[in-house]
Design brief:
It is found in: Membrane. The chain is mostly beta strands. The protein contains one helix and 19 strands. The protein has one domain: Porin (Beta Barrel), CATH 2.40.160.10.
Length: 276
């Protein structure tokens, strides 16, 4: 485990990723190439329904600086510049988008052995401001975040969370939606490689008295094949199959359907990522 509590956004992230990551509902094909100079080029095509889109992304890294740029088929350009250790133990991230340049923002992250702090400010005339802090160690952490809109002078969000992390498990509780929702999750690894795991998550929304309970897991069939599944109390069942065709080149097949409405057409997704 790394030193320090990590960022506030890391609380509950491992459980969330196991229950949501790679569950696709579209078709995606991507090809990546790398050069010895530190330049990475990725071309992606996504087909969702009857609509297709694509983008080309370039990444360049040199010492403590990296630049990520992406342009899509609609001529939207986005760029992210990351600078590490401008201030010791910190990271500064600037993101810009064109032609929607008002969506750009500047983010600053500071890491301490027992605390992390982040602040993000929109790059426009009436910027939104996001702040978060996490305190603790690599084993135990608690934190909070808040969002403030300068135009209205109101808080758009405030969230608090706590996490306990061990080598073979992690648990978290997050109070979100301005105190209207609480989410508790627990993840347990079943092998040393951490490819096989079981997870449970329960969410309570106080305003509607609605509870959502989700269980899921992943299982490494062999060194090249991974299977993931999830099921919640609303009847939603999802499954993912990932297989490494050749080194670093992975095909992902995903399906999700409603067990309480079997007449509905299940959702399927396929992704193929080719890397040298």
């Amino acid at each position: 485990m790394s030193k320090g509590p990590g960022l506030f956004s890391d609380i509950g992230k491992k459980s969330k990723d196991l229950l949501t990551k790679d569950y696709l509902s579209d078709h995606k094909f991507s090809v990546s190439t790398y050069s010895a100079s530190g330049v990475a080029l990725t071309s992606s095509t996504v087909k969702k329904g009857g609509y297709s889109s694509g983008d080309v992304a370039v990444r360049f890294a040199y010492k403590n600086t990296s630049v990520d740029a992406k342009v899509d088929t609609e001529s939207n350009l986005s760029a992210t510049l990351t600078f590490a250790d401008i201030v010791p133990s910190s990271k500064t991230i600037a993101s810009l988008k064109f032609p929607n340049y008002e969506s750009g923002k500047m983010e600053f992250q500071y890491y301490h052995p027992h605390a992390t702090f982040t602040t993000a400010v929109g790059l426009n005339q009436s910027p939104a401001v996001d702040l978060s802090v996490a305190l603790g160690t690599s084993t135990f952490g608690l934190g909070a975040e808040a969002g403030y809109e300068t135009t209205s002078g109101k808080f758009t969000k405030y969230t608090a969370g706590i996490s306990v992390t061990k080598p073979d498990s992690c648990a978290s509780i997050i109070l979100s939606d301005k105190g209207d929702s609480v989410k508790a999750s627990y993840l347990h690894y079943l092998d040393q490689s951490k490819k096989s795991a079981a997870v449970g998550e329960i969410t309570r929304k106080f305003s509607t008295n609605e509870n959502t309970f989700t269980v899921g897991g992943s299982c490494a069939i062999d060194s090249l094949t991974l299977v993931k599944m999830k099921f919640n109390n609303h009847g939603s069942l999802g499954a993912v199959l990932q297989h490494e065709l050749i080194r670093k080149s992975i095909v992902t097949i995903s399906s999700e359907f409603d067990t309480k409405a079997l007449n509905k057409t299940p959702r399927f997704g396929v992704a193929l990522a080719l890397k040298p």
